[in-house]
Amino acid sequence: MGTSQATASRAVSRLADNELLIRERMPDNAKEWQLRLTTNGAELARLKGLLDERLHQAALQVASHYTPAELTRFNQLLGELLQLSSKTFQDID
Questions:
Q1: CA–CA separation, 76 vs 54, rounded Å?
Q2: Contact assessment for residue 75 and residue 66, using Cβ atoms and an 8 Å cutoff
Q3: The pTM is what?
């Protein structure tokens, strides 16, 4: 998944602290956890899915006005801007 164990653990802790997720030790293995969404967590996930779909549809509508070559160049520009901002702000804490 490309996420470190520490990052995943922090994310799970935040979700549990916000009562969006329940974590329980597995009865037959103390090293493993079982994770379940709470009712609020499931609702939030559902709403996030709806938002993602609406954003995707809006992006498709905007992109339909441009040629594939224009979109390719736009994506290259965005990539360059992201790299530039990453390099520019990497030493700011």
A1: 24
A2: no
A3: 0.67
Q: What is the DSSP letter of 26?
A: E
Cα-based angle 16, 21, 26 (whole degrees, multiple of 5): 95
3-state secondary structure 33-61: EEEEECHHHHHHHHHHHHHHHHHHHHHHH
58, 64, 70, 72 alpha-carbon torsion, rounded to 10°: 60
pLDDT in tens, 31-44: 888 999 999 999 99
Identify the burial level of 38 via C-beta atoms within 10 angstroms of its C-beta, where 0-12 means exposed, 13-18 middle and 19 or more buried.
middle
